[in-house]
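Onboarding guide, step 5: your first structure request.
Type a short instruction followed by the sequence, for example:

Predict the 3D structure of this protein.
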Amino acid sequence: VNITLCNDNTLYEDPTGETSNGSGQYFFTGTTVSEQIRRGLIKFYVKKDIPQCAVITNVSLRLHMSRTISGDKNVELRNVEKDWGASFSDAPGEEGFGTQAESGDATWLHTFYNTETWTNPGGDFSANPSAVIPVGGVGFYTWNSPQMIQDVQSWLNDPQTNYGWMLYGTEDEAATAKRFDSRENDSVSFRPVLTVTYIVNDISLYTASLIEGFFDGIEMVPDTLKITLRNQNSPYAPVDSEKGLSNNLGDLNNCFSAPTGMYYIVVNHRNSIETWSKFPVLLTQNYGDYYNFTDAANKAYGDNQVLKLGSYCIYSGDVDQDGLVDITDGGLVDNDASVFATGYIPTDVNGDDLADLADASIVDNNA
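The system replies with structure tokens like these:
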């Protein structure tokens, strides 16, 4: 797959941190004649184009270098270690000296001008390069390495760590600058392209489920859910299971080592009733499936969900995880509430890190 959606910018050496080029046609690396440093930034949104369960097998980055004042100079890719921005700044002319930074731009001092800063002026990046090649005259250049595969795999597995790469040029001598064409370049064929090869042997399943006590009608307190795929035939043996932290809408994406087939989808939560899908569901390898428990009671086996503020929720209150909400669960909550127990505890039925009367009320209603 070729990924073209990206952000790019240039860190122009500037002790005031006022210079950027977030919307320019070019970004730069190396040094100017007067030995001012330029460092390029580029970030691709890999999650948009690659399935969650993919295993990356090859990565290459192709850039077009359109202007230089030097011969062959090494240009490295360094993993960036902080998020950064590219806003509306657009440098004039050949863009080599940048322009006044706009709100949200990356600068020599700022990750997002002018409210958030790098730990180190000039950017925070890995000590070791992910790839390095010599860049000479005008033309296309391609970076490819095993470390780039690891970088992209980590960005896919944990998108919150995707801060992209820095293009780090030769900085120990003057006049090494290289100008690369950006995502905004007038020539579409000159824009950056990240080519990723991958395989998917797993089932990728995106589930939506809401925990009654943790849901307020708008969002849910994120919490750990366990999703299990079970055989469609008795005794419904588990095939694979995964745990993950839901988002504030109850959504969770998991990868399962299982062949294409029909499976019951089972949701477990630390103090809620185990809930199965109404029927076995066809799940397909190398595809990306979705199951929503929240839009109808009959999405759950036995229609065993509760309607709360417009959405169907998994019943809360099974504190001892014996498959039912009863007086025993109520007693556990009462005991913890009497001593003002706090923290990540099973008797906290509404997700506020406290056992109290609010939790007891939920259990009593469902007992």
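Each response can be followed by summary notes, for example: Residues 182 and 188 are 10 Å apart (CA to CA).
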